[in-house]
Amino acid sequence: SHGRACALLNPYYTVLFAPVIQDQLKTVGVIFKEAGYIEGDVKKLEGRSLGLAVAKGMIAFARDLSFPTTLKEAGATREHLDRMLTAAKNPQLKMKLQNMPTPMDAEKGDVDRLMKPVLEAAFAGDLSLIP
After folding, report:
1. DSSP labels for the chain?
2. The predicted structure's pLDDT at residue 2
C-alpha cells in the first residue's frame, strides 16, 4: 500500500532532504533518542549527520516492528524501481516533485540524479548511496 511504501522510504528521503528539514529532524531525533533508537546527542548534530542519525533511528524502529526496511525485503524488484522512476517523470506529477522539501524537476534530470540513488539505497538498505 501507499502508506507502507512511504514508511519504508521515509528514512532514505530523510537523508536526501536533511539539509532543508533540520528543525523537523531535531524534533523527531529527540523522540527517537528518548525511545532508545538513536545513540549520542542528536542536539549536537546538523546537516547530513543529523539526517543519517535520524534515518538509522527510523530503520531501527521499523526493525523492532518487524517492518521491512528495504524495498527488496518488501518484495520489490529492479523492474519496480524502473517503473517508479518512469512514473516520477510523468508530467502530471510535476507539482508533486516541485513540492518536495528539495524541489525536483524531471526535465532537468533531478529524478535520475536524486531520486534514483535514493531508490537504489532503499532497495539495498545502504544509506551511503544517497547524494
Report:
1. -HHHHHHHHHHHHHHHHGGG-HHHHHHHHHHHHHTTS--S-GGG--HHHHHHHHHHHHHHHHHHTT---STTTTT--HHHHHHHHHHHT-GGGHHHHHTSSS---GGGTHIIIIIHHHHHHHHHT-GGG--
2. 87
